[in-house]
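Field log, afternoon session.

UNIT: design team B
ACTIVITY: writing a sequence onto a fixed backbone
BACKBONE:
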């Protein structure tokens, strides 16, 4: 239970870190379940469903020679209290800074792809129970000391021995063995394709053994003045400003910038004004400014898709919605195209699958969600045993949703769509505590609007669709689905996992425990002269909030 809640929190932070462009500050609480996570995301995304700029220019790959030098200034919403992973509590303020100071074995880009970091390559052995990482040679810590496999072992041994905020992520690592100075292996209690994704997406930064060994790691002075292997060196923290400088000994491509400055802003209007005045390069932008910015050729808009899906979940223990034919009828009754266009203004993606489309290797085109078919929907309702009454309805149902502004248009659209197939839909919008009590705790509902964050690995769909899934609020159960999910979880190669997840989608298409209609995403304004940010398409080799490949085109200022 605690592990699941920690993962939800960690995954929410991955999203927040990715939203350096085009958002105001994240909420103070990222959340412990998917619906709690939703509350945090609403701080950023309340207005995402509003009208997007019609003249927004999509970001394209940057061409031309990179220009080195200059200073990039980035806004953050909270001053860091510590850096690295050796602390007893998560420090939200350091989340944007650490990816520029530290490295991990592998990292995850915003396309949910795992890319090399300190480990140049890796391989599985012992039927997936051992992962061998081949580390880069000639990597140095910022103080000039050589980085070796001993640093990796020290980091994970320390994390596993203590009660740190990410310790629970590594419960399946039974041993860390140094083979030689450039080779380290992780022994797992079971093979799992998700382990690598968690290493890549979490704050699993490798820490310097020579700095921390023999000390109380939570009190070590390096937590305030970090020493990493990353593209930028920590220079100073003065009040609410953190300054990093270029690491000229960095092992990889870049960095191109001379300095990277993070400034804390609590006033969104002040932050925006400083951004407009070029006192800030990357900052949150109020969405009511989007249309104005779209008309100015100094700005571009960058689109991003994530693994968060919106939809309707059925309570399969309910008398009506225990019937899969009725659930399928409602699937045919939803016009996902209209919802995507008119409710969400084509921000994100229309959901066509039961899994996030970011996992391209696992998509089953034969189990795609169908286009709307009103007559087929009515036929399925009648096959399910319902007869239309004199008011033109087969049945009446109530949908629960949290009381967020975005649901006004959604509720109206779904009510009209289901009216056309003979279902009278009532909406009951609740406060978060009431919604949580009825949906996630008591499961006292017929239908509910729900968000699901299915990252960083496809195996997270098991939390929704397996019989004992932590987020299976609809009490859905299918023994064959459970079997396929369990088998897939023990595999580590995508080509071996794909058939099982495709079979799961085939079974879900028959059972329809959830109807997804949207994959979350957004369009975020950025300055054209700032290139190579984590959100730019051209740079898939950086993690969220990592500015290794960012550069300033002085000719376009």
């Amino acid at each position: 239970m605690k592990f699941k809640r920690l993962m939800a929190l960690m995954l929410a932070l991955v999203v927040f870190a990715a939203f350096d462009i085009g958002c105001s500050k994240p909420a103070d609480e990222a959340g412990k379940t998917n619906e709690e996570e939703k509350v945090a995301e609403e701080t950023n995304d309340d207005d995402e469903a509003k009208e997007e700029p019609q003249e927004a220019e999509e970001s394209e790959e940057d061409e031309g020679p990179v220009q080195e030098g200059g200073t990039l200034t980035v806004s953050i919403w909270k001053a860091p209290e510590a850096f690295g992973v050796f602390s007893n509590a998560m420090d939200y303020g350091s989340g944007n800074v650490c990816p520029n100071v530290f490295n991990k074995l592998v990292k995850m880009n915003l396309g949910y792809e795992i890319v090399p970091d300190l480990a140049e390559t890796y391989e599985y052995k012992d039927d997936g129970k051992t992962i061998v990482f081949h580390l880069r040679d000639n990597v140095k810590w910022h103080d000039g000391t050589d980085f070796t496999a001993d640093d990796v072992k020290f980091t994970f041994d320390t994390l596993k021995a203590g009660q740190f905020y990410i310790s629970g992520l590594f419960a399946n690592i039974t041993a860390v063995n140094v083979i030689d100075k450039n080779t380290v292996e992780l022994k797992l209690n079971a093979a799992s394709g998700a382990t690598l994704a968690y290493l890549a997406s979490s704050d699993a930064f490798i820490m310097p053994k020579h700095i921390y060994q023999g000390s109380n790691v939570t009190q070590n002075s390096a937590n305030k003045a970090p020493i990493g292997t990353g593209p930028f060196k920590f220079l100073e923290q003065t009040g609410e400003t953190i300054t990093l400088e270029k690491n000229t000994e960095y092992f990889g491509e870049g960095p191109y910038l001379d300095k990277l400055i993070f400034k804390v802003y609590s006033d969104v209007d002040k932050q925006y004004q400083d951004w407009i005045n070029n006192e800030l390069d990357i900052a949150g932008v109020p969405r009511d400014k989007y249309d104005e910015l779209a008309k100015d050729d100094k700005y571009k808009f960058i689109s991003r898709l994530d693994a968060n899906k919106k939809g309707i979940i059925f309570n399969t223990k309910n008398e009506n919605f225990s019937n899969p034919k009725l659930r399928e009828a409602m699937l045919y009754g939803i016009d996902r195209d209209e919802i995507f266009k008119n409710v969400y203004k084509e921000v994100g993606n229309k959901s066509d699958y039961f899994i996030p489309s970011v996992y391209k290797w696992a998509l089953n085109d034969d189990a795609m969600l169908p286009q709307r078919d009103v007559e087929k929907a009515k036929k399925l309702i009648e096959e399910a045993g319902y007869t239309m009454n004199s008011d033109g309805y087969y049945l009446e149902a109530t949908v629960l949703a949290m009381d967020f502004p975005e649901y006004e248009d959604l509720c109206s659209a779904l009510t009209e769509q289901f009216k056309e197939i003979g279902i009278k839909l009532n909406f009951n919008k609740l406060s978060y505590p009431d919604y949580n009590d009825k949906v996630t705790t008591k499961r006292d509902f017929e239908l509910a609007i729900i968000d699901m964050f299915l990252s960083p690995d496809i195996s997270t769909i098991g939390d929704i669709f397996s019989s004992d899934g932590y987020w299976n609020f609809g009490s859905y159960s299918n023994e064959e689905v459970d079997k396929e999910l369990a088998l897939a979880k023990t595999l580590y190669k995508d080509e071996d996992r794909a058939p099982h997840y495709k079979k799961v989608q085939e079974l879900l298409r028959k059972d329809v425990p959830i109807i997804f209609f949207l994959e979350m995403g957004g369009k975020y304004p950025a300055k054209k002269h700032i290139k190579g940010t984590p959100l730019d398409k051209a740079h898939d080799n950086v993690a969220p909030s990592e500015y290794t490949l960012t550069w300033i085109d002085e000719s376009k200022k």
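LOG NOTE: The radius of gyration is 24 Å.
NEXT ACTIVITY: expression trials, pending approval
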